[in-house]
Every structure is written in C-alpha cells, then in structure tokens.
Write a structure and sequence with these properties.
single chain, about 30% helix, 11-stranded mixed beta sheet, SGNH_hydro_sf, transmembrane helix, elongated, Immunoglobulin-like, Sialate O-acetylesterase domain-containing protein, transmembrane, 3-stranded antiparallel beta sheet, Rossmann fold
C-alpha cells in the first residue's frame, strides 16, 4: 500500500519559541494516504561542533493522529535544542535535517536596528543555530536559514545580529531566530500614524513616496501577523528616539505606551516583552543625542509592564565611539551585539519575561474515533427490543417482579442476538 507521505510543517531550519520551562511545541503536519491510522514523528538531538548535551540524547517519538482524508498533525513538545526530524508512516519516511526549539526575537526601530552603514564590517553568524527569515515583504514562502547575509524580511545586512546570535546560542545552548523589522530613517510617530489610519501623511520614511503605504510599520505588521503565530516569540528588541527629536519627555513616554499597547492588544499578547536601547541622557559630543526622548525612554522602561533596558549608550565605551561616528561602524557593531547579549540573560530577563509559543498549531484528529461493529438487525430483533422496552415501562409503573424478570430475559436475549451469540 502506497503511503504518499508529505510533510508541510515544521518549516526547515525554523526555530520555535520555548516556554518558561525550556520546552517548545513544534508543529508537525502533512498528508498521507487515507487508511493509514498513525504517523510517527521522531526528533533526534543534533551535535553542534564539539558540543554534545547528553541530557536529551534519547530520540523523542510522538504518534500523530490521521483523519479519514489522510491529514495528520499535532504539536510535539521537545526540550530546547537543535534537532533532526523524521516522520514515518508504514514503510515510508520523510526527513528534515534541522529544526529548533529556542528563542525568537523581533528587531524593530530605525537605522541602528536595520543597519547596513558599514559594509566593511558585516559579520555573519558562525553557529548554524543562528537563524533568520529568508523571505522578503513581497515573498512569503516561510523559508528560514542561517543568518549570513540578511535578516528577513527587511534587513539587507547581518550587522550586529550574527554576532549577537553567536553569543546567545553559546550561552543558552539553544538556537535563536531573528526577524528584521527595522526601517532606517523612520520614527515612532510614523508608525503611530499608520496604526491610527492617517491617510494624508506628510512625513514618510526614506524610499517611501505613497502616503497610503503602511511603511515603516509594514515589516513588523507582516511578522506579527503571518510568522509569529507560527513560531512564537520571546521579545521585541527596540531602538527608537533619535528620529523623534522635538518631542517632549512626557509625550514620548506616552507615544511608546500607545504603540506597544496597540501591539499587545491587536496581536493578543498582553505580556509581550520589549527591550529598549537607552539613548543618551546627557549630551555626548558626536552622537545623535536628544535628551527629552531619552528621558521618555527611561520613564517607559521604569513604568511599563514587561519593559526592559537593553544596550545603554550612557556607558563610557560609547563616548569614544560617538567621537568617530554618529551611527554604528566597526567596533560599535561589536559593542552593540555584546550589550544586547548582556541584557538577554537567564538570571534576569529570561526568568522574568513571558514567552509566547506558536498559536497556529495543526489540530488534526481522526474524523471517526470509534467504528461500531456492523450489525444485521432483523424484524424479530426489533420485536424483542420493543417487548423489553414495554416491560421496562411497566416495571416502573406497576413495580411487578414478573415484569422485571421479563425485561431481564428479553434484554439478555436481545444482547445475545445482536452480538451473534444467540
């Protein structure tokens, strides 16, 4: 019998967000020839380089239900790690070389997040477990792969994110996925205008000329709508403030609050964590400092639930860097990656934040869970059942022992005939 086995999920090389206990629910779904009752999914821990974690060396096997049309699917719970997957039905097996349970981050902001200024200092990730989206905004194929030359769907260069990924997977021991949603030259007000449906926008981000465009919000909107429901997410990493200069402290705090209130409410993630770059709170020669918006960022971090401080540009290391460039060049990219990694620690952020796992999981159950044995009920059987029913009714009315014995005898006779024993 041909099984015609196909595998639609998970996505190859994708990383699925683990929960607070370190486990991720990875969707496994596909089709098989109708009539196959069960499909087996086997996750096998992969060795990466010289690192071998023997705690989960035993393969994880899960049976997936199949409906009458041959659709199979379910969520397989696995510990954080890097796996190969094989799915078997009958004598057919389909394999996927890499899939992960780990951490998922969304990058959002202006040029410090999108990057691409220093073309001579673009360092790809060296660990195969550092993953990004390979799709672009106009090409949604759910393709994932190593973070080498882009951070999809919108960043053209690895910038600091390959380095950050290497630091995180080395420390955490699990794969990491980055979505690139920053837009250079944008500000927070532009995003709020899109959310609020402003159609006559006069200030647009570089490269956008259509006021009805949803830029610069479109990359974040795309990821939160189409990808995060499938992979889950730990947090949004944010850099905004410089390009909103001219906004007073209280107003900017309120802008941040309104924006992330919308994100959490619209995508039904009320505890979604945000980590923000703390910009300069005092004048720093050569930098793009803007004191009121930086103060607004500090107030937001201190008062908004599940908001955390990321890289702090008030540390001495940044002063010498800003004397050379007002954007991220050379050592600034390295420092940016290191400070992001320092803010995503197991002892503070990871234990306090609330991760969201995939919400769009395959939910396939057999259309027929139980098949009753075929029976051939003859007219005489209907007569016996009817007489037994009359005896039961009379028993309740007249409390007669004769009717009770009649009901029992007729009931036994009916059961015996229907089961083929009489």
């Amino acid at each position: 019998m041909s099984t015609n086995l196909t595998l639609n999920q998970p996505y190859s090389s994708c990383v699925y967000q683990r929960n607070s206990d370190g486990y991720a629910t990875i969707p496994v779904a596909g089709t098989v020839a109708p009539g196959i009752e069960n499909v087996l999914a086997t996750f096998t821990r992969l060795q990466v380089g010289a690192v071998q974690n023997l705690a989960y060396a035993v393969p994880i096997v899960q049976t997936l239900p199949v409906d009458v049309n041959g659709n199979f699917g379910g969520g397989c719970v696995v510990p954080g790690g890097w796996y190969s997957l094989s799915v078997s039905a009958g004598d057919t097996t389909v394999s996927m070389s890499k899939v992960g349970a780990g951490e998922v981050f969304v990058l959002f902001g202006h040029s410090f997040i999108q990057g691409g200024h220093d073309k001579s200092h673009q360092l790809p990730a060296t660990d195969e477990r550092v993953i990004t989206l390979l799709d672009s905004l106009d090409q949604r194929n759910y393709q994932f792969g190593p973070l080498v030359s882009k951070v999809g769907p919108f960043h053209g260069d690895p910038d600091s994110w390959g380095q950050l990924g290497d630091l995180l997977v080395k420390r955490l021991g699990v794969p990491v996925l980055f979505y690139g949603c920053g837009y250079g030259g944008s500000n927070l007000q532009m995003n709020l205008d899109v959310i609020n449906g402003v159609t006559n926008r006069t200030k647009l981000p570089p490269g956008t000329t259509d006021p009805s465009s949803r830029q610069p919000f479109a990359p974040l909107e795309d990821v939160l709508t189409n990808y995060v429901p499938k992979t889950g997410v730990r947090a949004i990493l944010v850099e905004h403030g410089y390009n909103d200069r001219g906004t007073d402290r209280a107003t900017y705090t309120d802008m941040l609050k309104r924006f992330f209130d919308y994100v959490r409410s619209h995508w039904q993630k009320p505890d979604l964590s945000v980590i923000l770059v703390q910009e300069q709170l005092t004048p720093v020669q050569g930098s793009l400092y803007d004191i009121p918006t930086a103060q607004g960022i500090a107030d937001f971090i201190n008062t908004y639930p599940n908001a955390y401080k990321g890289p702090d540009m008030n540390t001495p290391e940044w002063f010498g860097i800003f004397a050379q460039h007002d954007h991220l060049f050379g050592p600034a990219l390295d420092l940016f990656a290191t400070q992001w990694a320092d803010s995503i620690t197991a002892g503070s952020f990871l234990t306090k934040s609330y991760p969201y796992g995939p919400t769009q999981l395959p939910d396939v159950f057999p259309a027929v869970l139980y098949k009753a044995p075929a029976t051939d009920i003859k007219p005489v059987d209907w007569v016996i059942l009817a007489l037994a029913g009359l005896c039961l009714v009379g028993l309740f009315i007249y409390k007669s022992k004769k009717l009770m014995w009649g009901f029992l005898l007729l009931g036994l006779l009916a059961v015996g005939r229907l089961t083929g024993k009489v």
